[in-house]
Amino acid sequence: MKKILVISGKGGTGKTVLTASFAAIAKKKIMVDCDVDAANLYLLLNPRIRKTEAFMGGNEAEINQERCIKCGKCISICRFEAIRAVYKPGNGGIESIVIDPLSCEGCGACVYGCPVGAIDLEEKESGKWFISDTSYGTFVFAKLGIAAENSGRLVSKIKEEADKLGKKEKADYIIIDGPPGIGCPVISSLSGVDIALVVTEPTLSGMSDMDRVIKVAEHFGIETKAVINKYDINTENSKKIEKICGEKGIEVAGRIPFSEKVPKSVVEGIPYVEFSKDEVSERINEIWEVISKGG
Amino acid sequence: MVITVASGKGGTGKTLVSTSLALSLGGDLHFLDCDVEEPNGYIFLKPEINKTEKIYLPKPKIDIGKCTFCGKCSSACVYNAIAVIKPSEEKKVRGSVLFFYELCHSCGACSLACPEKAIYEEPAEKGETETGIAKGISTFVQGRLKPGEANPVPVVKAVKKNVKEDSLNVIDASPGTSCPVVQAVKGVDFCILVTEPTPFGLNDLTLAVEMNKKLGIPMGVIINRSDIGDRKVEKYCKKENIPVLLSIPFKREIAVAYSKGIPMVESFPEYSEKFKKIYKKICSIVKKGPER
Prior knowledge:
- The structure holds two protein chains of two kinds.
- By secondary structure, chain A is α/β, with parallel strands linked by helices.
- Chain A contains eleven helices and 13 strands.
- Chain A has a nine-stranded mixed β-sheet with strand order 3-8-9-2-10-1-11-12-13, with helices on both faces. Chain A has a two-stranded antiparallel sheet with strand order 4-7.
- In chain A, strand 12 (224-229), helix 8 and strand 13 form a beta-alpha-beta unit.
- Chain B is an alpha/beta fold.
- In chain B, helix 5 (153-160) packs parallel to helix 6.
- Chain B starts with a strand and ends in a 6-residue tail after the last helix.
- At the A-B interface, helix 4, helix 6, helix 7 and helix 9 of A face helix 4, helix 6, helix 7 and helix 9 of B.
């Protein structure tokens, strides 16, 4: 079972359009959307939900106001500036100690630091994940709660589920749509994959971001290949990307030309290779050939 | 006055908007790039960096001589970043405590939970902030998360410390709606959401709008490449009563200029007036802001 992750560093370079097309091309596969923060792949795969599960991903500290002696020790312990004192009007001292739920990381340091045991951690639901059926096969995805923490753990969770389903279904591939950036959900997405496909574009931003995400993949020892999307927007920069990849020993798996038909396929909610048979879909097919080999 | 430019979906044109807004307003203006995973504002504003500050967070270490292998640190760690291996003479195993630093959030719970005070902390580098000057604005600040580090929030916080409340600040946020974006948006006066008229753009705009509502931040929308998809974003904004501040039709020339790192207001100067108008509108919504 070969695990293929599509990432980019920069957002909006075409990860999801590419992943949905791979889903339509590949045989015997499971799809996963690891962009749990802003999941989009479901918009192209039209899933029918088979199973919904709550993700208990985070904690929130709660102060028992009756037990609290208002010593303020928790305020100095908290490294996330999530605890503050509310003062009585005038100069009457501390009225109460309160937690800001949006700043609280649920780490529990305050629980251990409180001298009277007045703080507890409450587990809270921070998202949902789904197993679904699509006309392309089984698809696992998730939705992190608004402004919720722990996207990395939700990513690990759905990858684990996809692994189990892949083994059960004897899948040849797990095709993973990754999140933008280089932080915790990207690191969780990279863990245990066989190949990371970096989708970049020939803009200075795309190049700068590709460089950073490749560093992260290298840091974790993951084999990387690249795709240059909209390569004809700036052919000079595209050549530079090829040169940079060559120097790093990264194979450029393909170049996709700019096409105004791509957003139209998204509006229609159809994977591009099924939406149109043209140069763009040919290139995507060739890229799949390159990255699906071996493993 | 602090304005954050966010988006939900990546690649919709946050940096295009934030840099052009900053250059259109100019003068005493602080540009803060809070997309610390992938900062790109520097490409367009071409700052001269004159100060770099490393960001350190405490990293737990074990004084193995004091450790009794009780395992309390491991059960206290909600991030599963600590494993305690108990010593066993039978199996000839020496006791040890392992820290998985990629998972560590530097919260300090382990050292508080340790009854033997066997855990101490050392500073570890998480990233850096760079401060400088750029043509047309007064200060430029950006954060860079060190590649391989998981948590961008401390770096975003460090950049945001440079906000000058009594003058004008433009913040560029990262895509999405989770921790680093919340950090970049929290407490600001106004949030501009940049989107595109596709189901992807609308889906992620909806998430970003929900985030702003939760944080209580007034907002407006800019629709980039406004003619590439459908009209559902406009309908949604109307229904939600969110002002559409600007629509930017697709032009290949804008994409080409962007690819070269040329700010939009340089290649299309007519947008400068449009951004000034947007700023006036924002001032009237939040009832504050220095004159421009």
